[in-house]
Amino acid sequence: MTIPIDCEQVRISAMAASDGEEGPIPSVQVDEHLRECAECRKEVELLSNVSPLPPTIRRAKSTESIWPNLESRLRELPSVSSGPSTVTSAGAGRATNDSLPRRLALCSTAMCILVAGLIFWAVDRPVSRRPSTGVTSSNSLLVMISESAIDNVDDSAEEELTIRAPFSDETNADEIALAVVDRTFNHTGTRFVRMRLVSVYKGRLPVGSFDEGQQQAFYVETRMPPESTELFGSGNRLALYLDGNIDRGWTVTSIRDLADAEESWHANVERFCDVLLACETDDSAARYQELLATPDRLPLDAPAFYALMAHPCPHAEKAVRPLWQQAIAMHFPKRDAGLPGGDFGRAGANEDDDAAQAYLAGQQPGGQQQPGMVQKETPPSISGTLQLVDIPSALAVAQILARIHDHESAEPVLQYAMTQPPALRTDYFDLLPDLCRDADPRLIRTTRASLKSLLGEADETPVAAERPLPQRNAKEDIRDGGIRTTGESNDHDSVKAVIDQLQTLLDGRNAE
Amino acid sequence: MVHDSEAIRKCLTGDINAFRSLVERYEREALAHARTIVGNAEDSRELVQEAFLDAFRALAKFDCTREFYPWFYVILRNRCYGWLKSRGRSVTLSLESCHNVIVPCETDVGKEDVEEALLRLGAEDREIILLKYIDGLAYRSVADRLEIPIGTVMSRLYHARRRLRAILESATN
Questions:
Q1: What is the H or E stretch that residue A179 is in?
Q2: Which residues make Cβ contacts (< 8 Å) with residue B41, sequence separation at least 6?
Q3: Which of A48, A71, A74, A81 is best to mutate for the B interface (most B CBs within 10 A)?
Q4: Do residues A24 and B151 touch, judged by C-beta distance below 8 A?
Q5: Which of A20, A58, A463, B141 is deepest in the core (most CB within 10 A)?
Q6: Cβ B105–A260 below 8 Å, yes or no?
Q7: Structural contact between residues B119 and B165, judged by C-beta atoms closer than 8 angstroms
Q8: Is A54 near chain B, with CB under 8 Å?
Q9: Backbone phi, then psi, for A189, in 5-degree steps?
Q10: Searching chain B, which residue's CA lies closest to the CA of residue A171?
Q11: What is the pLDDT of residues A151-196, one digit of tens each?
């Protein structure tokens, strides 16, 4: 079984080669594809003929230092003003051996204790607790708190640490959302936080203010376990940054992590909250469908989104399932579909999307093309926003499909993942046992056979002929350390380990 | 010259002058990068200052085994994109502001076209193209700076180049 090579991946690989880098597809396969694909040849030729920027262009450099102004602002920081004698300010002279972060924490804690209780007053106010409709304002302040922290909080003030989430008046927040941290998880090396919106305060904010030197500081606060010691804020997207393990088992990281991941995929925190909210409320199905009908509002292409959706969320799953299937059909067409090239490429390439939409519009359940249907209205549009361009997305989609027992759709996604270079699919190996835990035995067997094929070993149920793992040395893998730092032998070992785990799963199923 | 990690260690003891060495070492690069994103010198200076303040507050979280500037760059671009977002995420750059982003070193036939094309690109496209082709960063370094997978770097760069090429072609036609 031959897996079609994606034209865009070929072009990207060619670009990488011209940049002196290693692309997603080995050069041998790129050359082979270019011999057969005129469009790609043309594109690659353009790429190699046209330098993106003339060599005569450079960045403008500033000659004026920002230090004088920055220094005065640094000295205005409360923590600096009470610092060692190297700093001269109103607070100088109270030199201490405490480190700056320590002093920051102490200062913060001291101020927090002064204002303890405010947030609970705010949360308990009936008028403030309105039905959640999502965070909508661009000037919203999202505060994450741990649900278990709330449940377990001791009413005794002595055992609580009150955390103050400060923001400056320039934040100009007109909306504050309190989000309960539901769970966190690692996905492809990134930790994500799943939150449930508790309440949104609009209008009069449950904030206080106090004079901090010459500055008026505003705050909203909540009480947290003593482990929660760190604050982190950035502009109007401030979040509590809770460092370390809290309540055994999970770690809260900054909403910035989410924001950054999303921003990479052209979304924002507010939209993310909408999605999360939609996943967690009783009427989530309708709400979710509404969101899906406006794809520009959804970070549909975000790996984080896929990953989050892979976690229990029955309402949303039910609502979104047909759309997932469309997406799968679009991006992972079955190899027997008789499509030119075997793949539509990726969203973002309009011509490919048009082809995909035409295919979807004309495709009957049995895979027959029905004349006259091609020009009909396309199904709810995902094209243009959905980009299953990377392995995290593919894996997450596969995970979802396996969870909803749509193994037929999951299989091509898994096969796609298997075509990726080892550096990209190591996470895939790690994920496989979990992915297969509740899966149909057929999927487990197929996956196991794929892995054995990958290692060049025969299997009783052969699947796609995989190229063997390329030889990689430890140095290369370390260079790819953002993904994984394994040597070639470890890569083989990890595959073998996964094969064994899958066999164990199968044995368990048989025993059942 | 004090090494970055040594300077940071001193900063953590409250030595503000140690921070000065970091600022002066990287401010020019930071200003240039901020201009790439926000497009004008005045706002860039403010944002770079804010970013250095953010960095100063967050130094305790810095892993001294890593390089300072890539870590700082993440803070800086968060500041810059946050600023763009607060402006409605659609900051229109003037040709003048584009001159603040890049300058030609010498006479070049296509430089105006390229300047114009860069001006018309989105901030993220402009950023990744300049990181790669002006700063000469490897894909891995670009990925670290942007905190995205290396595969995403390739994909984004590819589409950014396509868009740049399309703009240049339309200008030529």
A1: strand A175-187
A2: A62, B31, B35, B100
A3: A74
A4: yes
A5: A463
A6: no
A7: no
A8: yes
A9: 80, -5
A10: B86
A11: 433 333 333 333 333 333 333 444 444 444 444 444 434 444 444 4
